[in-house]
Amino acid sequence: KIPKPTVKRLAIYYRCLAKLKEDNVEKTSSQEIAYILGIKASQVRKDLSYFGEFGKRGVGYDVDKLSFKLREILGLNKSWNVAIIGAGNLGNAIANYSGLEKNGFRVVAAFDNDEKKIGKYISTNVKIYKMEDLEEIIRDNLIEIAILTVPAQAAQNVSELVIKKGIKGILNFTPATITVPLNISVENVDFVVSLKSLTFALGFLFEK
Amino acid sequence: KIPKPTVKRLAIYYRCLAKLKEDNVEKTSSQEIAYILGIKASQVRKDLSYFGEFGKRGVGYDVDKLSFKLREILGLNKSWNVAIIGAGNLGNAIANYSGLEKNGFRVVAAFDNDEKKIGKYISTNVKIYKMEDLEEIIRDNLIEIAILTVPAQAAQNVSELVIKKGIKGILNFTPATITVPLNISVENVDFVVSLKSLTFALGFLFEK
Lengths: 208, 208
Ligand SMILES: NC(=O)c1ccc[n+]([C@@H]2O[C@H](COP(=O)([O-])OP(=O)(O)OC[C@H]3O[C@@H](n4cnc5c(N)ncnc54)[C@H](O)[C@@H]3O)[C@@H](O)[C@H]2O)c1
Ligand SMILES: NC(=O)c1ccc[n+]([C@@H]2O[C@H](COP(=O)([O-])OP(=O)(O)OC[C@H]3O[C@@H](n4cnc5c(N)ncnc54)[C@H](O)[C@@H]3O)[C@@H](O)[C@H]2O)c1
Known about the structure:
The structure is a homodimer. Chain A is of the alpha/beta class. Chain A has 2 domains: about 5-75, Arc Repressor Mutant, subunit A, CATH 1.10.10.10; about 80-190, NAD(P)-binding Rossmann-like Domain (Rossmann fold, 3-Layer(aba) Sandwich), CATH 3.40.50. The first copy, chain A, contains 9 helices and 9 strands. The longest helix of chain A is centred in the first third of the chain and has 19 residues, at about 5-20. One nicotinamide-adenine-dinucleotide sits at the interface of chains B and A.
């Protein structure tokens, strides 16, 4: 079982390699990746060693090969159908975010319990459905991932509901901590944590 | 100088302690914090040791005291005025996010280069200004942090512009990597990285 922090770092290595690829860099090293990301080279080597031998000591890694391997590991070679639960301000922004499709994530449906929103389009191809339609739409569209953008107080109940209807992974944007069965994956997104890191750095730099 | 990964963890410890406080927990330990967050207790102790003695071996930490200390360290005792640059879908969602004010971040203005948006309100109290007004509004409102929600191709130029007008810290939501002077802080937010961690966990659990 790969530790969760390692998985997170693998996704960040993958993004780093994608940028190197864009810049037409053919070879890289754990030192270079570590330098770019501000972490230790030994950490990079340790993480990659879980998955076998990619690089040669002194020669480094082939960017294409390593990027392809990370894609495989991260399950990026398949595309994923996604549902947005909670078609409010944030749900709307996410439905219209082109970065998702580029990365193999297709928003196929949105759900909301506000009658006024049902039947409207959240983005060009994505309709807003009522919660009662969850099971049918999840099943017909093989949706495995739900993006949770409902208010915090609805988070736990809505999570339990979508899991019951077939969802296997939840990207939780609410400030609530949700509790799910062991075989269900959850990722929490909280950009306020990033804002706080920013204020710390600012305080540090300017001794507030 | 505190390593960046440590700063990030401190912000996450703070959030964890805030939840313990909500649940009326008075005492905690590095083991409990570590267990909740899925990291090593030794990591928690090491991070907190940068800032002095908080806990007693065998007795643990006082939740209130530790939470207060982390608030201080993270610069959370002060409130911060924030500007949103790029009043589009995502900028709109963020301007309307009540979680910001609760955490001491006040959105005081938004900026955009789309003439049709100038003069409109992005949220109840926040007006959209033209880019030419940056300097005056940043100065009059003591704005130190900019939330960058412009398209990727505009990110670097817009960053340089707001820094020139007085911004000290940037929360970058664009997929572009921005380059800034050494005394300016940047935090990158990319929830697609979290989606990829999710797919890895799903692939791992269901051997896709
Ligand atoms: N807006 C942001 O930038 C931002 C940032 C970080 C976190 N968040 C969090 O994301 C969530 C959504 O934020 P928002 O600004 O889009 O809020 P919002 O109020 O605009 O949207 C919430 C939507 O969820 C729907 N809803 C409410 N209860 C529901 C239920 N039981 N079942 C189905 N749908 C339900 C509402 O009808 C509404 O359309 C909140 O938890 C918020 O704290 C938002
Ligand atoms: N929508 C999301 O959920 C999401 C998620 C992650 C990242 N992002 C990123 O956030 C950014 C904004 O996304 P969005 O969906 O809100 O896009 P959007 O197109 O709706 O909004 C962009 C806004 O920026 C303005 N703008 C463009 N160039 C500008 C310039 N030079 N100066 C000032 N304003 C300018 C536009 O007029 C528009 O109002 C993009 O970089 C996107 O990749 C969005």
